[in-house]
Amino acid sequence: MAVCSVCGKGVHFGNNVSHANNKSNRMWKSNIKSVKCKVNGTPKKMYVCTSCLRSGKVERA
């Protein structure tokens, strides 16, 4: 679900690194919103990241 349907941006993985240099897994979730968009003239509900919304790649319905 947490994947942008325009650019494909999703979750990124990495490590939490403590002061003692212990490492544990963590993830960064993309800022994805559920938006009604116009697709071929008809409104459709899509999951879109906020960077695609701000750049104008998606036309809201």
Keywords for this structure?
61 residues, two-stranded antiparallel sheet, two-stranded antiparallel ribbon, rod-shaped, 46% strand, mainly beta
Structural commentary:
It is built from one helix and four strands. The protein has one domain (12-55). The protein has a two-stranded antiparallel ribbon. A two-stranded antiparallel sheet has the order 3-4. A hairpin with a 5-residue loop joins strand 1 (12-17) and strand 2. The chain is rod-shaped, with a radius of gyration of 16 Å. It has 61 residues and is mainly β.
Give the SSE layout.
Elements lengths: L11 E6 L5 E6 L3 E8 L2 E8 H6 L6
Antiparallel strand pairs: 1-2, 3-4
In short:
The protein is built from 1 helix and 4 strands.
* Domain unit count: 1
Q: What is the strand tally?
A: 4
Main β-sheet: number of strands, strand sense, barrel status? 2 strands, antiparallel
Helix content: under 10%
Poorly predicted parts: none
N-to-C order of helices and strands: EEEEH
Strand content: over 45%
Gyration radius (Cα, Å) is 16 Å
With helices defined by DSSP (H or I, 4 residues minimum), what is the helix count?
Answer: 1
Q: What is the global morphology?
A: rod-shaped
Return the average pLDDT rounded to an integer.
Answer: 95
Q: What class would the helix/strand composition place it in? A: mainly beta
The span between the termini is 21 Å
> What oligomeric state is this?
single chain
> Order of strands side by side in the largest beta sheet?
1-2
